[in-house]
Amino acid sequence: MKTNFLRYFAVLVFAGALYSGHAQISFVPGYLINGKGDTLRGELKINPKKEYVNHDKAFFKDPSGVQKNYKPEKVKGYGFADNHYVSFTEDDEARFYKRLANGSIVLYKCSFEVINKNEVSYDYEYFLYKEGDKKLTPVKENKFKKQLQEWMNGSELANDYQEDKKFNVESAIDVVNKYNDWKKNN
Question: pTM to 2 decimals?
Fold first, then answer.
């Protein structure tokens, strides 16, 4: 009985290791927008446990199986499923910014490296953008409702933003999407 339990446990551990290894990095169907603006279909290598990597490079495999890393200064963007990344150069550094809301007002997210006592971690910054803007506008996380009112020209929809002790990303996405839908229909 004890031997059967140990075998069963060993199989579970092995299966868990295979599953977690598989869940970490995989190729998913996606697209890449090259420097000329052409959309190429293929697969992207994604590691869901290290989302910050998506802001640094895109590892793309074309239909013929050719694999290549693309830096944000070489391509205009990429995407997979409901995730879309656009290349911007801010402060002389090109990065991929994840588009969280799209329309008249676009909300982006980008990762940055934080070093604290020789420990490296990653955090995120958020940005707003309107067509015709020359650069991204950083979100004022502590005054986002006021910033939204300015960006939405005093629209009452800005009051729907649910303030929290820290920046409420889900509420920001919801309010910006509602405004974009309203703007599209008016």
Answer: 0.82
